[in-house]
Amino acid sequence: MQSRDERFAGQVKAIINNASRTVGVLFLLASFCTIATCATRAGEPAFPELKAGTLRAFERYVELTDGRNEAELKRGTSLFWVDGLPEGQRAEAYAALKRGEVKLQRLETRDNGAVISCPGGLIHHWVGVVFIPGAKLEDVLGTLEDYDRHSVYYSPDVERSKIESRNGDHFRVFLRFRRHKVITAVLNTEHEVEYFHDAPGKAHSRSSATRIAQVENAGKSDEREKTPGDDDGFLWRMETWWRMEESDGGVYVQSEVASLTRNIPIGLGWMIAPFVTRIPKETLTFTLEATRTAVKNRRSKY
After folding, report:
1. Is the dihedral of CA 272, 284, 190, 59 positive or negative?
2. Which is nearest to 123 in space by CA: 260, 232, 236, 274?
3. Residue 193 φ/ψ, nearest 5 degrees
4. DSSP state of 38
5. Which of 18, 159, 221, 247 has the greatest CB tally within 10 Å of its CB?
6. Dist CA 120 CA 55 (whole Å)
7. Nearest Cα to 170, choosing from 185, 192, 188, 151?
8. How far apart are CA 6 and CA 28, in angstroms?
9. Cβ(249)–Cβ(28) under 8 Å?
10. How far is CA 100 from the centre of its chain?
11. pTM for the structure as a whole
12. 176-189 core/surface letters (b: 16 or more CB in 10 A; e: else)
């Protein structure tokens, strides 16, 4: 049992630690303000701007990625990225999928072998696949197309969701994203989504974010949208390709995402880098896992 003096010493130590953490937070905030001020004084903008050259580079990237996807879908076989692995690795990947793992890979689209330079921005490109045992293709499509409930299926990443219009397999949807990594960003987004039924047990979709607006003071009385492209640059563009195939007593689901964010400014890397470099991969992993959970829950109700 601790003596009175030992208990008192422990309390004093806890107070000192709490004070140190508070000072640390204040120091980081002061450092950010100082860095932003210095950047402005040096003639470098403290906040980014989506420039025409950045957008052209991303559009070229998406054009080439679209072409590769169309060619693979037209071929109709080996639809998932793991199918391109050497035989032994491919078998291990499918075994991992059957165990419930999500298999991801970072991609890079090149232009005739050359790296596509994106001045002022960063292109993030990931693909992931998950297996949903016991599911049918219509279960997956029913979940993905149920955009009014995406705020339930994909919470907390999706805070609000709504189908704005539907014409057959074409959807226009609203999604509000909330993403946190050191800092929190809230984004109002609109998407055009088209679904395609390729063959019995096979389907794919193509989604394009037509509008992305960062929300300032989200949830407060003075909430407002920043002008798209003239914001903090956490997400400027997002393009998504989904593929689904019913096989092996379930459905394989693949999602491929290419997104455009600001580059990482000198001096702000400690705050910006974790957000723009880790969020794309982590978000894709979460999306695929949440899709599997939502599909399973949907099946249990019917």
Report:
1. positive
2. 260
3. -130, 135
4. H
5. 159
6. 9
7. 192
8. 33
9. no
10. 20
11. 0.82
12. bbbbebeeebbbbb
Q: Count CB atoms within 10 A of the CB of residue 27.
A: 10
Which tokens hold the place of 230? Answer: 């003239």
In whole angstroms, what separates CA 257 from the centre of its chain?
7
Per-residue CA distances from 9 to 5, 16, 18, 20 (Å): 6, 11, 14, 17
Non-local (6+) Cβ contacts of 241 within 8 A are: 65, 69, 204, 205, 206, 207, 255, 256, 257
What is the distance between the alpha carbons of residues 266 and 40, in angstroms, rounded to a whole number? Answer: 12
The average pLDDT across 3-31 equals: 42
- Which position has the token pair 């990625």? 65
Taking the C-alpha atoms of residue 170 and residue 207, their distance in angstroms, rounded to an integer, is 10
CA 113 to chain centre: 26
Residue 8 contacts by C-beta under 8 Å, 6 or more apart in sequence?
A: none
Secondary structure letter of residue 236 according to DSSP:
S
Rounded to the nearest 5°, which phi and psi values hold at 104?
-120, 155
pLDDT of residue 66 exceeding 90, the answer is yes
Tokens, residue 63:
């054009």
Residues linked to residue 130 through DSSP beta bridges, in sequence order: 253
CA dihedral (255, 82, 141, 285) positive or negative = negative
**Distance from chain centroid for Cα 288:** 11
The confidence score (pLDDT) of residue 266 equals 61
**Residue range 233-255: average pLDDT?**
96
Query: Which of 299, 286, 252 minimizes the C-alpha distance to 143?
Result: 299
Tens digit of each residue's pLDDT (9 = 90 or more) over 160-192: 999 999 999 999 999 999 988 777 899 999 999
Report CA-CA distances (Å) from 150 to 180, 252, 263. 18, 20, 30
For residue 156, whether the previous peptide bond is cis, meaning omega lies within 30 degrees of 0, is yes
Residue 35 has pLDDT above 80, yes or no: no
- In the chain, which residue ranges form alpha helices assigned H by DSSP? 4-41, 52-75, 87-98, 137-144, 150-153, 269-301
